Amino acid sequence: MSNLLEIKNLRKSYGDKVVLQDVSFNVPSGAIVGFIGNNGAGKSTTFKAVLELIHKESGTVKLFGKENLNKEVKLKEKIGVVFDAINLPSNLTIKQLGKVFVKVFDSWDQNEFERLVDIFALPRNKKVGSFSRGMSMKISIAVALSHNAQLLILDEATGGLDPSSREMVLDELGNFVKKDGCGIVLSSHIMSDIERIATHLVIINEGKITLNEEKDKVFEKYAFVDLDNDQLTLLNQDIIIAQRKHGALFTVLVSDKEKLPSGIVAQTITMEEISVFLTGSE
Ligand SMILES: Nc1ncnc2c1ncn2[C@@H]1O[C@H](COP(=O)(O)OP(=O)(O)OP(=O)(O)O)[C@@H](O)[C@H]1O
């Protein structure tokens, strides 16, 4: 499986504040990477650095195997981007947008755009600037899906969508990634969305990656255990992902419940629990 995006040791500071420290993860072809973290953890900053909208301090970013996106103009067309804030021309209608984008993108697919506008039930003759937040997200997603991109970078793209719209969008994302050589990285605070569609989980906490793993592996092998100090010393250090102290006991997230000493009871994990544990917001 080749990587559409490779991020290695990415670092970024604003003034004295280090907001990304040694961030590394990949988006393989065929994958949907769920990028999870609290408000201010560094998700948007990572995306902006990947897209070269901001300068990174150090580290490398490779898109389709190549560095320096700004010098590889053709590559940009292969990336569909949706940011939380709408950045489409507000004075145009959807009808007019189609006419603009056919000129902007060599590979603009007007039929696909029309299909998505229909299934997202978006009005064709209303100015985009007057759209609700949910409608704005849907039109941004429709655009990102209509220029034959291979990689989608979606920052909070399902936030603000009603449940039936979310279903439709998640279905479309699932279909997108089935196409040859396509992949998605999406940040979200909606754990049920991540649990439903992600193939890989990347968790970031205060600019540091605390988990980077295939989702199925997390649910098959990972577990929480409650231990006292003596039991903790018996634990194979290699399987400890994170631990928290609660009075005299420790709650430990382990990466392989098969390697637990006998007598220690593994508790099953939920997406919500693992994300709360690793984002430190408990
Ligand atoms: N232009 C900027 N100048 C100074 N600090 C910034 C700037 N942009 C982001 N930051 C800081 O960088 C940190 C990471 O912000 P970022 O927007 O990447 O978080 P996030 O994980 O996307 O959060 P959210 O879930 O709220 O969207 C925060 O502490 C934020 O205040």
From TrEMBL:
Limits of the ABC transporter domain: 5-231
Record-level Gene Ontology MF annotations: ATP binding; ATP hydrolysis activity
Keywords, in A-Z order: ATP-binding, Nucleotide-binding, Transport
Keyword Membrane annotated: no
InterPro entries on file: AAA+_ATPase, ABC_transporter-like_ATP-bd, ABC_Transporter_VariousFunc, P-loop_NTPase
Species lineage: Bacteria, Bacillati, Bacillota, Bacilli, Bacillales
Highest rank taxon of the organism: Bacteria
Name of the featured protein: ABC transporter ATP-binding protein
